[in-house]
Design a protein that fits this description.
43% strand, mainly beta, disordered N terminus, Immunoglobulin-like
């Protein structure tokens, strides 16, 4: 009897966990960077981001961490990858301070042409970042200069002001 009870509790806990994950991690809108396309992206998500279900930019809190995760299929092979992240504007790209450029810590290396793989990174949103909406350019660059590049939107806000 106790065994059945624990199985029911465990099953309910699993359902709750998967339900929570589906609410917290939503696929977000993204666009390819201008220029030659060297990668296909899919399943791009930010956790947490309840706004994604409505197609809005993710609201992230200054002083918090978010996880960005995506699948990518490069049109090139490379033994190493570096990651560059920028606040992008029409006239200039400003580097995202504090980003770890060693992409192979967050995805499997070497990467193989036409092979889909996942990249996942915990991004620190510093308290010093001004509150506003940003286009964020995310690049994965191979050793021969080939790159995967996409642009996502985030909205930085101060604690307690999610909109």
């Amino acid at each position: 009897m106790k065994s059945c009870y624990y199985q029911v509790i465990f099953s309910c806990a699993l359902v709750a966990l998967f339900s929570l994950h589906s609410v917290a991690a939503e696929e977000i809108n993204f666009r390819q960077c201008p220029g030659e396309v060297k990668c296909a992206f899919s399943d791009v998500s930010i956790t947490p981001c309840p706004e994604a279900a409505e197609g809005r930019a993710c609201t992230v809190y200054a002083g918090s961490n978010v996880t960005i995760s995506f699948d990518f299929t490069p049109a090139f092979s490379s033994n190493e990858l570096t990651a560059d992240v920028y606040w992008t504007q029409p006239a200039i790209d400003l580097p995202f301070i504090g980003m770890d450029p060693a992409a192979c810590k967050y995805t499997a290396c070497p990467v193989t042409k036409d092979t889909k793989q996942n990249y996942s990174y915990d991004l620190n949103i510093k308290k010093s970042y001004p509150a506003r909406q940003y286009d964020v350019k995310w690049k994965l660059i191979g050793e021969n200069g080939n790159e995967c590049c996409m642009i996502i939107q985030i909205k930085i806000t101060k604690k307690g002001k999610r909109t």
